[in-house]
Fold each of these.
Amino acid sequence: MNGVPGQPSRIKATGMTLILVGVVAYGLWAVWLSTRNNVSVDIPIRMTVGHVDTPSFKVNRNARYDIEIEVQKRIPFDKLNCLLGTAMKPKSTELQECPDEPSVVKAAWVLTSDGQIVAHGSSEDHRYGAWGNDWIARELGSFQSEHGRSYTLGVDVLSDGSALTPGNPHLRIEVLSSVYEDEMVGTALVMLCSMLFVLVGGILLLVSFVGDRRARV
C-alpha cells in the first residue's frame, strides 16, 4: 500500500512543532511569573513609638501593592484580632468588637520615590485585614506601583504596640490578592492551551507513525 509521498513527514514535523510550542509557551510563562516582584519588602518591625524606613526597593510590574503589618498567631486568635484592629469598618471610632482590648496599631506612612512623595496614608483610614494559616495581617494602606521605579517607605509608629511582640510583627509590601488570582487564571489558561498543543501534536505524531508503517507495506 502506497501513501502520499512526504505526507507522514509533514504530519510528523507539524506534530513536533505543536508539542514544542506548547512546552515552550508554558515554560516562558513560568519563567516570567518567577521573575515578578510580588513581595517587595518583608522586614521585622518593632511596634514601639518611633520611625522606620525600609530599604529602597524596586518593582518590576505595574500593580497595586498593600502595606501591611503581619503578625504570627503566637497570640490567642481573638486577642490578636483585637490588638491589630482587623475588622471591615473603615474608622477606628466605629469599632465595637473589642471594647476592652482596643487596637494598638496606630501608624502613618509616606512612600517616596527619587525624593518625591508619591503616596501617604494612615492606619486610621484602613481597617481591613488578611488571615492565613499562621498569621494575621493588618492593612495600613496601598499604592499603585510603576514598573522599574524605586521606592522607600517611611512608617511612623504613633502608639505603643509592643503587645504584638510575641507574634514577631513584620512590615510587608505585597501585591493585592486579586493580582495572585489573575495570575492563577492566566496560569490555568496557558496550561490548558499548552496541553491542547501537546495533545494535538501527539495525535499528529501517532498519525505520522501509522502512516509510515502503512507506507512500508
Amino acid sequence: MEKMLSLHFLGGFAAQIAPVLLVAYIVTMFSADIRYGLNRAKLLSETDELTGLLNMRGFTIAANRLFG
C-alpha cells in the first residue's frame, strides 16, 4: 500500500512540475534569441555591411576604448 501511495505522489508531483519546467525552457530559448538579436543589431550598427569594417560609430567606440 505504501508503494502505491508513493507512486501516486510521485506521479502527481511530476504532473505539477512539468509545466514549470516547460515554461522555464521556453523562457531560456526566448532569452537566447533576444540576446542573439541584440548582439547582431550591435554588430550591424558598428560595422559596414558590405566590407565588415568598422563604420564611424564603431571606430569612435574603439578609439574611446583605446584612448579614453
Amino acid sequence: MSPDLLNDARSRLASARAITVLTGAGISADSGVPTFRGADGLWRNFRAEELATPEAFERDPRLVWEWYSWRRELIATKQPNDAHRAIAALESRINDFWLITQNVDGLHRAAGSTKLSEIHGNIWMLRCTACDAVTKNYQVPLPLLPNCARCGGLLRPHIVWFGESLQEEDLTRCANQLQACDVLLVIGTSGVVYPAAGFASIAKEAGAYVIELNLDPTPQSDLVDIALRGRAKDLVPILLQAGK
C-alpha cells in the first residue's frame, strides 16, 4: 500500500467535522465470523439465501431456527477485534459520527459503539410473529421454536431477511448521515447488496470524501476517492490513529 494514500486518508479523517462509517462482513471475518456468502456460508448444503427468507421460515421454522441457533452459538465464541474497537474509539472523539453496519453479530455494540444503525438487524434480538414485541436474548443455546413470553407466539430472529424491507427509520437516519458527512469510511463490504451498495454514491454526490478499505477491489472501488487494501483489523487502527 502506498504510504501517501494512507497519509492522505488519515489527513482527511483528522480534519473531518462529520464522519460516517459503513461496515460489512469483512470486519467481522477478522474476528472469525463466517461471511455466510460463498463456500464458507454453506450449512448442511444450504445457502444463506435459501434460509434467510420469510418463505423458508413459514415453510420450515424449525430448520431456520436450527441454522440461527448454530450461528448464535458460533458468534457467542467471538470477540470484537481491533477494527471494531478503533471505530468505537473514533465515535468518542467525533461529535458528529454515525456507524452503519450490515452485520447482525452485535460485535460493534460489544466493542462499545452506541451511535449506530444495524440496518439488517441483530441476531441477539428476537421478534414475536404474533404481537411484534422485540426483545434482547443472549441465551445459548436457545430452545428450538422459542415462544414469546408475552403472548406465546412463535419468535423469529429480529433480522431483515431477503425479500423484506429495511426499517424506514433506519433508511432515513442513514440517508441523513450520508448526506451530512465530510468523510465516509467504507470497511469490509462487497458493495453488491442494496441498499448499502448505493451508500457510497449518496455520500459522494453530497460532497463527501469516500475512503474504501477492503481486501479486494469491489464494484465501488472506481467511485471512491481512496481505496486501501488489507485486513480491517490491521488497517483500521492505523488509519484512525489521526486525531488521537
Amino acid sequence: MRVAITGAAGNIGRTLLAGLGAAGHDVVGVDRTEPPDGGSDQVTIADIATDDDALRAVVTGADAVVHLAAVAHETDLETALDTHVRLTHRVLEYAQAAGVRRLVYASSNHAVGFTPRAEALTVETRPRPDTYYGLGKVAGEALCSLFHDRYGLEVACLRIGSFRDRPRNRRALSTWLSPADAVRLVDACLTAPELGFAAVYGVSANTRGWWDLGPARALGYRPEDDAERWAAEIESTQESTEDRRDSEYVGGEFTRIELGR
C-alpha cells in the first residue's frame, strides 16, 4: 500500500516510516520539523495546519493515511482544539476528497484516562479524558467516527499507551507499547480485510496488561514484546506512593498534573 504519515518526524512517525517500509509499504511523510537524524526524501517539511498544497500533495495517491501530527502533551484548551480537532478535521477532509480508503488515527489512552483499573478495560468504556490533551483525542475519535459513517472511510483509532524503547515505571509494565509492536499494530490496521470503524488499545503483550487487546487482535495484531522483562529492575527502584497511584488509573500521572499546563 502507499501510506502517508503525518507527524513523520516524531518518535512514532520515524518508527513507522522505517518499519512500514520494511514491511513492504510505499511510505511517504510530512512534518513541520525536520527529523532529528537529518532530512529524508521520504519526508516533506511543511505545516499541514496551514499549507493546503502540502497536505493535498501528501494524501493524493495514498491508499491510507496514518495521522500522528499533534502536540503530544498537555496544553491550554485552545491549542488542544487546534492540534487535535481542527488539524484532524483538515486531514480527514483532504483524505476523503483524495479518495483515501483507510485512515489510522493516533488517539491516546488519555481519552479514557480517568478510568480506574479494572480486570480488563474494554474499548466500550465511556470517554473519561484526564486533560485537555485527552479531551482533544476524544473529539478526534468522534470526527473519525463521523467521517466513517458519512463517507465510508475506514478508520482505526489507536489509544496508544506508553510508547518508548523500554518501560520506565510501574505503570508502564501494564501500558508499554514497544516500537516493534507499534509497527505490527499499524500494519494490522492497514491490512485487515475488514476494518470499518475500530477503536483499539495500543499496548504490547504485557504480562501485567489490563487493557483488552481483543479488538486489536481481531484485526490481525500479534504483539510479541512484554514489559515484564524489566519488572524486577523497576520494582526494586520505584516504590513511591505516586508511582503506585499512577498504576491505578488509565492515564497515570496525567490524572494529577495541572489542567491546561
